[in-house]
Design a protein that fits this description.
- The complex is a heterotrimer of chains A (403), B (292) and C (322).
- Chain A is of the alpha/beta class and 403 residues long.
- Chain A contains 13 helices and 16 strands.
- In chain A, the strands form 3 sheets. Chain A has a 7-stranded mixed sheet, with helices on both faces. Chain A has a 7-stranded mixed sheet with strand order 8-7-9-10-11-15-16, with helices on both faces. Chain A has a two-stranded antiparallel ribbon with strand order 12-13.
- Chain C has 322 residues and is mostly helical.
- A two-stranded antiparallel ribbon of chain C has the order 1-2.
- Chain C has one domain.
- The chains are: A alpha/beta (403), B mainly alpha (292), C mainly alpha (322).
- Chains in contact: A-B, A-C, B-C.
- At the A-C interface, helix 1, strand 3, helix 3, helix 4 and helix 5 of A face helix 1, helix 2, strand 1, helix 13 and helix 14 of C.
Chain lengths: 403, 292, 322
């Protein structure tokens, strides 16, 4: 029994001591929280987050506004509890004033309540979920550097309508998880607005083994356009089964996945002809920012540097996190101190040219106060190229129907 | 009805795939009475094996299948020796948790080595189909169906006609009686576990060109496998075979003919399972007695 | 009888003192420690719940079903009926009790592995339903607990600790009643138990209602802490696994086992996340540690401790759980 009491006493003291805050450090440090999905199902996103942060710190240098930059990388383990624990630790124990992450929609949504306990300046380089947008409506300290669902669909709907005219038929297939559910309404609305007739909306389970029933039902409605709102895992199965079923639909539209190399590798020749929208495309030669060419280089140069360091081509999230982080550092520099309100003000007025386009934060119709990079380029995979087809001012090719 | 013939085709082909996924689980449980919570990971390992050979050595997954199956069987043997042998007489929960932990380790090791990127193999036949009378018969799934029939038949033949197979059946029926007959029960357990893993890996090879390969693909295949094995009757290979098709038909039927059926399909499978458990727990063809 | 000698009072008093300290701690501790306290406390409730069912021979592979139902009940009670935390979590516990009783009635005399798989099917089935009933649950997108109703985090912490203390107290009381013999009989052989006059179905209903209520309570309080719920979070397989890991690591069929196991599990998981998290090894280490624990401590930590204790004092450990 004495042993039990001793064990209990030891556990108790351990708990108390480990929770005690460390004494405030004498040197001046700016802490940037980086909660990412470094393990578990969404590790592919988290890895990009980490790479983006590393490139950013290298590009900017070790200090900003007289403070040393300290990036606190935390693993959210691709779970809700992991996200809550990581955010709580960053905000309450580490006292980070700035947070960039997480990325996947579900975890960003889960992080909101933890963020509300102690609001840091929060840059979110992910999540297109309307639930999240609703939750952060009117929040001054939240900066969203990723497209919302309506950005995707508005862009592609307009582009295709411009190419084939109004009154055509569109079918939508979506997954029942948070990704699909959060975008289906936007897709319906914007395709309707662009003059299309929505003839079918088919639901499939996430990780389903067979999409053939949904596709066969869609085939009966003879649509001109098929929109697939799915995460990459399901999008691979979708692309293959569409190709196999020879549905004869001339235009196939995706969301984020048609740009991903991993998707293209997985589906082989079925990737050709898919259409999507994004604010960043590889090999697009976005120019450098004239005032800060080292921080916001021409995309060709940055891509080469990335390839040299990581031996792989950069993807959309690598670029997004890098750009977000560098913009934050610049804003802190301009504000002269880590005061959140001042930095937020500077961030809003940064006005830099980045690889993702104009670095201006605007208010969206959905209520988010600070949204950047909502201008989408609509592209089509033609052979090995991403051909930009819309807006016409930036197009370097025309939309082709599938053979 | 216009969609009915295609529904039949799709349901049958899906049934074949399910059979392949579940038959290994059925064998392992039937013999060792241990639910292999890591079975999904054997499927995953098989899929990665096929992917790696296809991507780096340009070997077709079907040709790679025997090699991959043997490799995964060896991994299973290792797992058996290191972990399972110690818990053969432990409470079921310990066994379940142990295998779950093994699965967790396998998932994360693969994720660390291969990264979390999704993958798939694109063989020529994976992207083509034959059109007959307005019906689409995908080649990839048809081949998967054939593979599953062949392997299931081979398994049954092995169990009935070979010495080792009959010994395995003896162990499945009664461990003590088998011991009295001079059969090395532990060795039979190991062998069944290895064969079960090999079958799982074979289904993985097939899945590699049909679906997406990721380190975390195993879990929902495991749940599906459970549903099939219990539905068919624990310990009965024939039951698993039948149940695979019953489930495939139920799911595909709901997906085709019910509004938002794609979302409800999996739920229907579980509802069917619950109903069967309540009415006839031994399953469709089961004769396994309560082993607890 | 058990309370006459002073020596026997000591562990009892220590337990009460420890509980009181735990309840007071959230007000003094930092938010990070509160996060840990909540993790441990909710796991204690879950573990005790699972253990209660296991004591009667009912191995549940779908404890996340109760957790999820409790979470949704609490959120909906708050969002749609405006209930504050205490009524909402009571509603959650009631929902769990109803589900548990229903499960007992539906599964009738299903035993062992069949019962276990029925629970797994229940859990997965409820998740599908939660995803499809978008109007009620928000579907795959999830929903937030109304921000205006959320109390201070420390209050939620205290509620969770009280639940944990209550759960342990309940399980301790159960070992002091004749009920524990009926359960042990059921565990060993349900048919034989019936011949001894135990009514298996009635006992199952009681056991599962109680276990369900506790697990749903844990889920209900937890959602007041995290604030966001979707079907994957609610019916997460991880919950089911944790509900088993803690009692097994700690020592199944004992009162102290689930508690010890909960501390150990949270420690293991947090340690691997904090010290190894950035390299992505955390889940891997967690899995390996689990394997090692199960292989080398089959009776859990409490069981190992008691063996050591008994050997040390050369006294046979009494049949009663510690």
């Amino acid at each position: 029994m004495k042993l039990t009491l001793r064990v209990i006493a030891a556990a108790f003291s351990f708990v108390l001591l480990s929770g005690a805050s460390l004494p405030v450090q004498a040197q001046k440090v700016i802490k940037v929280g980086a909660p990412y999905e470094l393990s578990g199902k969404f590790v592919a996103y988290g890895a990009q987050g980490q790479r983006g942060m590393e490139m950013a710190v290298d590009a900017y240098g070790p200090a900003v506004a007289g403070h040393k930059i300290e990036v606190l990388l935390k693993d959210v383990q691709s779970t809700n509890q992991g996200t809550v624990s990581a955010m709580t630790e960053l905000l309450q124990k580490d006292n980070a004033d700035f947070v960039i992450g997480p990325i996947a929609s579900g975890f960003v949504s889960a992080a909101v309540p933890a963020w509300r306990q102690k609001k840091a300046l929060w840059i979110v380089p992910g999540s297109s979920s309307p639930t999240f947008e609703e939750a952060i409506t009117g929040e001054e300290l939240v900066f969203h550097t990723y497209p919302w669902a309506y950005h995707y669909h508005e862009g592609t709907a307009k582009a295709i309508a411009a190419a084939i005219g109004k009154g055509k038929k569109v079918a939508i297939i979506y997954s029942d998880g948070s990704y699909g559910r959060s975008q289906i309404q936007a897709a319906r609305d914007y395709y309707g607005e662009a003059g299309f007739q929505v003839v079918a909306t088919e639901l499939v389970r996430e990780n389903t083994n067979d999409m053939s029933p949904a596709l066969q039902k869609i085939r009966l409605t003879k649509p001109d356009v098929l929109v697939g709102i799915l995460q990459t895992t399901d999008a691979i199965v979708l692309a293959k089964q569409i190709h196999i079923a020879k549905l004869g639909i001339p235009y196939l539209v995706g969301t984020a996945y048609p740009q991903l190399q991993e998707w293209a590798d997985a589906v082989g020749e079925a990737a050709d002809g898919w259409i999507a929208a994004n604010s960043y495309l590889p090999n697009l030669n976005a120019p450098a920012d004239p005032k800060y060419p080292k921080l916001f280089p021409a995309s060709k140069d940055w891509e080469a540097a990335f390839k040299k360091r990581y031996n792989r081509a950069p993807e959309f999230l690598d670029v997004t996190v890098y750009t977000s982080a560098v913009m934050l550092f610049l804003a802190i520099e301009r504000a002269g101190s880590p005061d959140k309100q001042k930095v937020a003000k500077e961030l809003r007025n940064l006005g830099v040219q980045t690889m993702l386009g104009d670095g201006n934060f605007v208010k969206t119709r959905g209520g988010a106060l600070n949204q950047a990079f909502g201008e989408m380029l609509v592209y089509q995979r033609q052979g090995k190229q991403f051909t930009v087809v819309y807006p016409t001012a930036r197009a370097n090719g025309t939309l082709r129907p599938m053979k | 009805m216009g969609l009915f013939p295609q529904f039949l085709v799709d349901a049958v082909l899906l049934g074949g795939l399910y059979c392949l996924m579940a038959v290994g689980l059925s064998l392992a449980y039937g013999v060792t009475r241990i639910i292999n919570f890591a079975h999904g990971e054997f499927i995953m390992l098989g899929a990665y094996g096929a992917y790696l050979l296809a991507a780096h050595a340009h070997i077709d997954p079907l040709l790679a299948l025997p090699l991959v199956a043997v490799a995964v069987a060896l991994i299973a043997f290792l797992i058996f020796k290191v972990c399972l042998e110690r818990v053969l007489d432990a409470p079921h929960t310990n066994q379940i948790l142990l295998l779950f932990a093994v699965g967790l380790v396998l998932q994360n090791v693969v994720a660390l080595i291969m990264t979390g990127d999704d993958r798939s193999v694109s063989t020529p036949y994976a992207l083509t189909a034959t059109e007959i009378a307005g019906l689409s018969l995908p080649h990839g799934r048809a081949i998967a169906f054939l593979v599953s029939l062949i392997l299931a038949a081979a398994l049954v033949l092995w169990l009935r006609r070979t010495e080792l197979g009959r010994a395995t059946q003896a162990v499945a029926q009664s461990r003590d009686a088998a011991t009295l007959m001079g059969i090395n029960v532990i060795r039979m357990y190991a062998l069944s576990f290895m064969i079960s893993a090999a079958l799982g890996a074979a289904s993985g090879c097939v899945v590699s060109f049909l679906l997406t390969v990721s380190p975390f693909m195993g879990f929902h295949m495991l749940v599906k496998g459970f549903a099939i094995v219990v539905l068919g009757g624990l310990g009965s290979i024939a039951g698993t075979f039948v149940a695979s098709f019953v489930l495939a038909f139920a799911e595909t039927g709901v997906a085709y003919f019910v509004n938002e059926g794609g979302g409800w399909a999996e739920g229907v499978a579980l509802a069917v399972l619950l109903v069967v458990l309540i009415i006839r727990p031994s399953g469709i063809l089961g004769r396994a007695t309560e082993g607890n | 009888m058990a309370f006459t000698t002073p020596m026997r009072i000591l562990p009892f008093a220590a337990a009460i003192a420890f509980s009181a300290a735990c309840i007071a701690l959230p007000f003094a501790a930092t938010p990070v420690v509160n996060d840990w306290i909540i993790s441990v406390a909710k796991l204690v409730v879950l573990a005790v719940s699972w253990n209660i069912a296991a004591n009667a021979g009912l191995i549940s592979l779908g404890h996340s079903a109760f957790w999820g139902v409790g979470s949704y009940a609490a959120v909906l009670a708050a969002n749609k009926l405006g209930m504050p935390i205490l009524p909402a979590v009571i509603a959650a516990a009631l929902a769990g009790a109803v589900l548990g009783a229903a499960l007992a009635v539906i599964t009738g005399r299903l035993r062992g592995i069949f019962f276990a798989i029925a629970t797994l099917a229940l859990s997965e089935g409820l998740r599908v339903i939660a995803v499809m009933l978008v109007g009620v649950t928000g579907g795959g997108e999830g929903l937030y607990l109304a921000q205006s109703l959320r109390p201070d985090v420390r209050i939620v912490c205290v509620v969770m600790v009280c639940c944990a203390v209550g759960a342990v107290a309940i399980s301790w009381v159960l070992t002091r009643t004749p009920y524990q013999y009926a359960c042990r009989a059921m565990r060993a052989n349900e048919s034989a138990a019936q011949m001894l006059g135990v009514n298996p179905v009635r006992l199952r209903v009681i056991v599962l209602a109680l276990a369900g209520a506790l697990a749903s309570l844990a889920g209900g309080v937890n959602i007041w802490y995290t604030g966001f719920l979707d079907p994957n979070i609610a019916f997460d397989l991880h919950i089911t696994i944790l509900a088993q890991i803690a009692p097994i690591l700690g020592g199944i069929h004992t009162v102290a086992g689930p508690v010890v196991g909960s501390f150990a599990t949270v420690f293991l998981s947090e340690a691997s996340r904090i010290w190894l998290g950035t390299k992505g090894f955390s889940l891997l280490v967690y899995g390996v540690a689990l394997i090692v624990c199960i292989l080398f401590m089959p009776h859990g930590m409490w069981g190992a401790y008691r063996k050591f204790h008994a050997r040390d004092k050369q006294r046979a450990v009494a049949g009663r759980a510690a």
